[in-house]
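User: Could you go from structure to sequence for me? I need the amino acid at each position, not a summary. C-alpha cells:
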C-alpha cells in the first residue's frame, strides 16, 4: 500500500496542533504579564515595618486628620507596609492621643452603643504604652477624624480621655 502525500500530512497534524496550542499559551501568558498595572497592590502578607521610634510631635498626625485639638498629647509610631516587593510605599501611623475631658465626652457621644472592648491593630511598641486600657472601636469617630486621603480606624477609651488612631495612606 502506498502512502499518499495527504496521508503523511495527517500523521503530523497532531504534533503541529500541540505546538500551535503551546505557542498560543505562551503568547497569551506573555500578554497577561505585560498588561500588569504599574503599581502593585499591597500583598495580603504585608506587615508594618517600624521606621520611626516613639514620637510626640503632634504636627504629622494633625496634618493627616481633622478635629483633633492642637493641645492634644500624642505618642505615635510610623513606618511603611512591607512585603519585600518593589514599588510605591504605603505609610502607616499608629497613635495614642490624649484629649481634654470635654473633647472625650463629645467623641463618646458618637460612639454610644457601638460595641464591646477590643484590641486595636497596632504595633507592639504602642500597645505596651496603652497599659491595658479598655478601648471600643468607633467607625463614626474614625470618619469624624478622617481627612479623606488616609484610611483611619479609631478606638476610644471607655474611661479615660484617650483615643487610639491608626492611619494608612500614600504619604
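Assistant: Here is the amino acid at each position, in order:
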Amino acid at each position: 500500500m502506498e502512502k499518499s502525500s495527504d496521508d503523511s500530512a495527517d500523521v503530523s497534524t497532531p504534533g503541529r496542533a500541540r505546538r500551535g496550542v503551546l505557542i498560543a499559551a505562551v503568547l497569551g501568558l506573555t500578554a497577561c504579564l505585560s498588561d500588569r498595572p504599574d503599581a502593585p497592590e499591597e500583598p495580603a502578607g504585608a506587615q508594618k515595618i517600624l521606621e520611626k521610634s516613639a514620637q510626640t510631635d503632634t504636627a504629622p498626625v494633625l496634618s493627616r486628620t481633622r478635629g483633633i485639638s492642637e493641645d492634644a498629647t500624642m505618642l505615635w509610631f510610623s513606618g511603611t507596609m512591607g512585603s519585600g516587593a518593589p514599588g510605591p510605599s504605603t505609610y502607616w501611623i499608629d497613635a495614642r492621643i490624649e484629649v481634654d475631658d470635654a473633647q472625650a465626652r463629645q467623641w463618646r457621644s458618637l460612639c454610644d452603643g457601638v460595641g464591646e472592648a477590643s484590641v486595636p491593630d497596632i504595633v507592639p511598641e504602642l500597645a505596651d504604652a496603652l497599659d491595658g486600657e479598655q478601648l471600643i472601636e468607633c467607625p463614626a469617630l474614625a470618619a469624624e477624624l478622617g481627612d479623606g486621603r488616609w484610611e483611619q480606624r479609631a478606638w476610644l477609651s471607655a474611661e479615660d480621655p484617650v483615643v487610639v488612631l491608626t492611619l494608612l495612606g500614600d504619604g
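One structural detail worth keeping in mind: Residues 7-11, 24-43 have pLDDT under 50 and may be disordered.
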